[in-house]
Design brief:
- The protein is mainly beta.
- It has four domains: 3-26 and 61-223 and 309-342 and 385-420 and 486-622 and 682-716 and 768-871 and 925-987, Maltoporin, Chain A (Beta Barrel); 227-308 and 346-378 and 426-481, no CATH class; 623-681 and 718-765, no CATH class; 883-921, no CATH class.
- The protein contains 14 helices and 52 strands.
- It has a 22-stranded antiparallel beta barrel. Strands 1-6-7-4-5 form a five-stranded mixed beta sheet. A five-stranded antiparallel beta sheet has the order 14-13-12-19-18, with no helix packed on it.
- The longest helix is centred in the N-terminal third of the chain and has 23 residues, at 3-25.
- InterPro entries: Beta-barrel_TonB, Beta-barrel_TonB_sf, Plug_dom, Plug_dom_sf, TonB-dep_rcpt-like.
- It is a multi-pass membrane protein.
- Residues 373-953 form the TonB-dependent receptor-like beta-barrel domain.
């Protein structure tokens, strides 16, 4: 721990204690609310309705996070705040480890997926991220400019259009600011890393007719390496760092892994020199190699990876408003964000390699096939250089007709997101082949590629048999390539809205909102030419993506007051809405919604809703560049395949698709077409909510709510791997998968009739999808005392009762796509996700705030319930090690239940019949986790404020996960360590 770390940590801890002591002893009282006069409520915009209204509580459940609450989190990114709300599911962030996320940070409500959550800023949808899949990169929205975040916990396509399936987020920026304000923030982990700096300056002013605001902000997040935390320093915590197959260490490291005829898999003994650069490797050097041991020779890649990716952002936000006439106002706003960052992973393995027998660095005298080597001094770095900007201009106003109020607005928006993705640590396959081919030492003692009569100019022979020091910078420079991809998304929209009062009903005045929108979305993804040609080792080849679509929409919302001031109904209000959308990509869709707001009395509000929603196919899903790849596969219909030999049903299924009797496949790779599908239909959804809000008269300042929700998503968009398609067709009698396979019945492919000639693995709509059901509940309590100040408590929770296939089939039953269902997966952690994937049954946040004169403090407790995961990694690795040392068998106890026996469900080969077979399936339970965050502040007499805080006060470690990707804790938990921060705010 550095001296700097100790000083920052100790200073903040001491200051928090001083603030608490000083506040307890001060005699300054809070100002009391003195106004007891009735107030006329202005009409406001409320998320979940397009009608301006006086009531903030609508029929739809909305969570609002004020600017003050945002500051209490101690966070500097919008995404980080939203990831901690109870309704959030796993999503991309800078904490995503061992994955190239392009630096994006997103939000995923209700575990539905980030592209099924609509994100708006000031009521207008934000431009999609550089992935072109429909999600939004929240790091492109400067938190310094945010005044409030509203989260609608219900589908709302009828009001807002596509993507609003599982919720809507509206980020409201600061406005009507008069004066100037400067903020300076710094934080870091107790380990001395992950330094986070943020600075912003805001200036604004107002007159009778003009208002303006300018916000400038800078944030910088420092890196945290996986090797700097015990739980992530090795691939599988609790085991030796170098165990692979089984295990999690890589079988490819700096001492190689080679297949040599007669010797099998071998590795350079780390204690031996091996081949030396610039020298002919003598045959005797072969004695420096020994058999590869998968239990001890694996490579620990974890320390090379980031736990937190470094990132730097600059942003500018400006807005102006001018009252042109008494009832007409012009407004405009501009956002600009520049983001630069990178993600580091362990060096790219060079594999597969064929090292020529004539290479000077081959001591074996025969071609070495299946070679693999990792040049660990040259890690992979995925860079990101992104610019996001949005311009909006609008006119709005209001007028009265026959004492009826009407409001209107028209606006134009243009937005663009552009990202350059430079990459380092990748290799040009053509040059790799040259560098491992024949080579020699010339008369001047320089190693050359080729032969004396056919020298390859500039080529440096590659030594992969000399360990990490045998692979030189010159060798790397010859084979290295730095591909650059360019991604771009643009959005252009014209909107017009009109709302107002219609006529009086017995329950009140009927109101409406009507609007029109024209929007165009464009996206492109241009790979580096070498990447597109498949010549970059480790970089997945793909062809350019370029496409656009437009949509014309109209919506209508009606607010119908049914009853007012009668027994058991202070008010009863029905809201109806519908949206018609005409897409150039797929056609038309109409989505209705109905909601009911029943105010029984001053204490009890009952609310409910039903609605249909949709998600239009994204640019990448529609137009992703086609690629005809050659994935490895096993043909089930080959007469030497065990499934074909052992099942008459499989054989008959093969014959039914034109496979000739006696066919034996000669291919190890097949032709599979992947990419976008312009014929995709939209995903569809049905959502329902029902709940109540209770505000008892006997406890002033207290409110409680409970809301049940149900969301069903069908026609989901996705794709299948080629082998999955083959297996589903012949082993599971899935007619839909069989339709994607074409066989060559005349022998045109390779002269062997019956071979698979094509597999269509493009994006498509699946009949099934996702269904989730559960409850949101919470309470808030606010009270004030003369002697102790103002207290506020708030609880927000989400309980997931079901998450899984549509129709809620039990485990082992078939879902709508004819696949075996996993049943209810709420409370489980799916394996192998680099973004993290826990589906907590319960997430809950409890916050206590206190203010007394110039002092304030808050405590937040964030709870995540336990989740269950497979523990196969631990079980298999422990037993493999026990064969060498029996004491390792005790490591199976890292699993919560290593001896668990449950049914496995499989298809009877060639049929849709499901059979259950008992099997050992060890599991591990990640226990419930509670994080505690504290903050204290003091407002100075000179208009300054000092804030100090500690996140993860009790230094809670994430629970051990045996199936987390790349290390031993899931990326959705907090990075280990206390995080200390301080902020100074100065108002002018």
């Amino acid at each position: 721990m550095t001296l700097k770390t100790t000083k920052l940590r100790d200073a903040i801890t001491f200051a928090l204690a001083v603030c608490a002591t000083a506040a307890a002893g001060t005699g300054v009282a809070l100002a009391q609310e003195t106004s007891g006069q009735p107030q006329t409520l202005d009409r406001i915009d409320v998320l979940g309705s397009r009608i301006k209204r006086a009531e903030a509580e609508t029929a739809l459940p909305v969570l609002s996070i004020s600017r003050q609450e945002l500051q209490r989190t101690g966070l500097t990114q919008v995404a980080d705040v939203l990831r901690e709300i109870s309704v959030a599911g796993p999503s991309l962030s800078l904490n995503t480890n061992n994955g190239n996320t392009s630096g994006n940070s997103s939000i995923n409500l209700r575990n539905c997926g980030s592209n099924r959550t609509l994100v708006m800023v000031n009521g207008r949808r934000w431009v999609t991220d550089n992935g072109l899949a429909g999600a939004v990169d929240l790091s492109s929205i400067p938190m310094a400019a945010v005044e409030r975040i509203d989260v609608l916990k219900d589908g709302a396509s009828a009001l807002y259009g596509s993507d609003a399936i599982c919720g809507v987020i509206n980020i409201q920026t600061r406005s009507d600011f008069d004066g100037a304000q400067f903020n300076a923030y710094r934080g870091q982990y107790s380990q001395g890393d992950g330094v986070r700096d943020a600075y912003d300056f805001t200036v604004g002013g107002n007159t009778d007719r003009f208002s303006g605001l300018l916000n400038l902000a800078f944030t910088e997040q420092g890196a945290v390496s996986a090797g700097d935390r015990d739980i992530s320093a090795i691939p599988l915590y609790g085991f030796p760092a170098n165990v692979s197959t089984p295990g999690r260490a890589s079988p490819v490291g700096p001492y190689g892994n080679y297949t040599v005829t007669g010797l099998g898999n071998i590795i350079l003994d780390p204690s031996r020199p091996g081949c030396q650069p610039g020298q002919v490797c003598a045959p005797g050097t072969a004695g420096d190699f020994r058999p590869f041991n998968f239990l001890t020779d694996g490579y620990n890649f974890a320390p090379d990876n980031h736990l937190i990716q470094p990132q730097r952002t600059y942003s500018v936000f400006g807005q102006v408003g001018y009252q042109l006439f008494d009832q007409v106002r012009f407004s405009s706003e501009v956002f600009y964000t520049n983001r630069v960052g990178d993600a580091q992973l362990a060096a790219q393995p060079l594999s597969p390699l064929t090292i020529s027998a004539q290479s000077i660095y081959n001591p074996f005298g025969v071609n070495v096939t299946g070679g693999a080597f990792r040049p660990t001094n040259f890690p992979r770095v995925f860079g990101q250089e992104q610019d996001t900007w949005r311009f909006n201009a609008a006119l709005d106003g209001h007028f009265d007709i026959n004492d009826r109020y009407f409001a209107w607005d028209v606006g134009y928006t243009y937005a663009e997101n552009k990202q350059l993705q430079p990459k380092n640590g990748f290799y040009f396959s053509t040059r790799v082949n040259q560098a491992t081919g024949p080579s020699f030492i010339d008369s001047s003692g320089v190693a050359r590629c080729g032969t004396p009569t056919a020298i390859i100019a500039g080529c440096v022979p590659m030594n992969v048999m000399g360990g990490p020091t045998g692979f030189t910078q010159e060798m790397f420079d010859w084979i290295a390539v730095n591909p650059k991809n360019l991604q771009k998304a643009t959005q252009e929209a014209i909107t017009a809205n009109l709302s107002g009062d219609l006529f009086s009903l017995p329950g009140g005045t009927m109101a409406f909102a009507f609007g029109l929108e024209h929007r165009k979305e464009f996206g492109s993804n241009e790979p580096d030419p070498l990447t597109a040609a498949g010549l970059v080792l480790g970089d997945n080849p793909f062809l350019p993506t370029r496409g656009s679509y437009s949509v014309d929409e109209a919506y209508l919302e009606l607010q119908i007051p049914l009853l007012s001031d009668v027994a058991f109904a202070d008010s009863l209000e029905l809201s109806l809405a519908a949206r018609y959308s005409d897409y150039s990509s797929f056609g038309t869709t109409t989505n209705p919604k109905a909601s009911l707001r029943w105010q029984i009395n001053e204490q009890m509000l009952v609310r409910g809703s039903w609605g249909e929603g949709f998600r239009a196919p994204s640019v990448s899903e529609l137009y992703q560049g086609f690629a005809t790849g050659r994935p490895a596969f096993q043909d089930v219909c080959s007469d030497n395949n065990p499934n074909f030999v052992g099942s008459a049903a499989v054989r008959q299924a093969c014959y039914n698709t034109g496979v000739p009797v006696g066919f034996r496949s000669q291919l190890s790779q097949t032709f599979a077409t992947t990419g976008g599908n312009p014929d995709l239909r939209p995903e569809t959804s049905e959502s329902q909510t029902l709940g109540f809000v209770y505000s008892p008269s006997w406890l002033s300042g207290f409110d409680a709510y409970v809301d049940w929700y149900s969301i069903v998503i069908e026609n989901s968009i996705g794709s299948l791997a080629a082998q999955t398609i083959i297996n589903e067709c012949y082993l599971q009698a899935n007619a839909g998968s069989c339709a994607l396979i074409t066989r060559d019945t005349v022998g045109a492919v390779n002269g062997n009739p019956g071979e698979i000639s094509a597999i269509i693995a493009q994006n498509r709509n699946f009949v099934g999808g996702i269904e989730t059901e559960g409850f949101d509940f919470g309470a808030s309590y606010r009270f004030e005392t003369d002697d102790w100040g103002l207290f506020q408590f708030r609880l927000d929770s989400t309980y997931v009762s079901y998450y899984g296939d549509v129709g809620q089939p039990s485990r082992g039953e078939l879902n709508g796509d004819g696949r075996i269902s996993s049943g209810n997966t709420a409370g489980q952690l799916p394996a192998g996700s680099s973004t993290g994937a826990p589906r907590h049954r319960l997430r809950s946040n409890l916050t206590a705030n206190w203010q007394y004169g110039a002092f304030d403090a808050s405590v937040t407790m964030e709870y995540r319930s336990r989740v269950r995961e497979s523990c196969n990694n631990v079980y298999n690795t422990a037993n493999a090690l026990a064969a060498v040392d029996p004491s390792y068998r005790d490591l199976v106890n890292l699993c919560s239940d290593p001896d668990r026996i449950i049914n496995d469900y499989t298809f009877v080969p060639g049929t849709q019949d499901v059979v259950a077979n008992p099997a050992r399936r060890p599991v591990n339970m990640l226990g419930g986790t509670t994080y505690t965050h504290v903050q204290a502040g003091w407002t100075a007499p000179w208009k300054g404020k000092v804030t100090l805080g500690i996140r993860n006060l009790f230094d809670k470690n994430p629970p051990f996960s045996s199936d987390a990707f790349a290390n031993s804790f899931d990326a959705q938990y907090l990075v280990p360590g206390q995080f200390f921060y301080m902020n100074y705010q100065q108002n002018f």
